[in-house]
Amino acid sequence: MKMRMFTFKLDPVAGTFDDTALTAFFAEHDAIDATEHWFVHDGVPTLTMVVRYREATSRGASSSPHRREVAEGRRGESEATIELEPEHRAIFEALRKWRNDRAKRDGRPPYVLFTNGQLANISRARPETKAALEGVHGVGEARIRDYADDLLALLRTAGEAGG
User: Fold this and answer.
1) Residue 137: per-residue pLDDT
2) pLDDT digits (tens, 9 = 90+) for 61-118
3) Nearest 5°: CA angle at 120, between 4 and 67?
4) Is the N or the C terminus of the chain less surrounded, counting Cβ atoms within 10 Å?
5) CA 122, CA 116: separation in Å to the nearest integer?
6) For the segment 105-152, what is each residue's pLDDT rounded down to a tens digit?
7) What is the DSSP string of 75-106?
């Protein structure tokens, strides 16, 4: 496993961060985890992303559907989601939809909220409390603070629906 850090300054005109370099990086590497750090430097909001990754098993966007999706700005499935049982898959898909909707609303890339691997871990564990959610690998204090209520409500709804 390797690590790489990306730093983005807020574009005051667009009101967003230019994550072109990060998208290009994901076209060539398989992300394991990403952690964001927000700060203000010289009055400019700045985002630093620390990405843990491994080299992709095959090179080139044309050789892999996953890499084509990443190159086009759509994250493909991680290895962690491929092994999901059908009952976990339905929950994973609901979590992924929630993540994508929330990221769009917040103006952030989805992988900043949760990676596919983290969502797969949550779908397998199906935590019912904040304490149980915090015990899921990849879910820490900040994610509990920011997203636990939404996630637990979604998991309860999925459980009632028989998912």
Assistant:
1) 85
2) 333 433 333 333 334 444 444 578 888 889 999 999 999 999 889 888 888 888 888 8
3) 50
4) N
5) 10
6) 988 888 888 888 889 889 999 999 999 999 998 888 889 999 999 999
7) ----HHHHT--HHHHHHHHHHHHHHHHHHHHH
Q: Are 155 and 126 in contact (CB under 8 A)?
A: yes
3-class secondary structure, 109: coil
3-state SS class at 49: strand
Question: Contact 115/78 with Cβ under 8 angstroms?
Answer: yes
Place of tokens 């339905």: 90
Residue 62 neighbours by CB under 8 Å, 6+ apart: 68
- Please give the domain boundaries of the chain with CATH numbers for all domains: 1-76 (no CATH), 77-163 (1.10.150.80)
Beta pairing, strands 29-41 & 2-11:
unpaired
Give pLDDT tens digits for 1-26: 789 999 988 887 877 778 788 877 87
> What is the phi/psi pair of residue 79, to 5°?
-60, -30
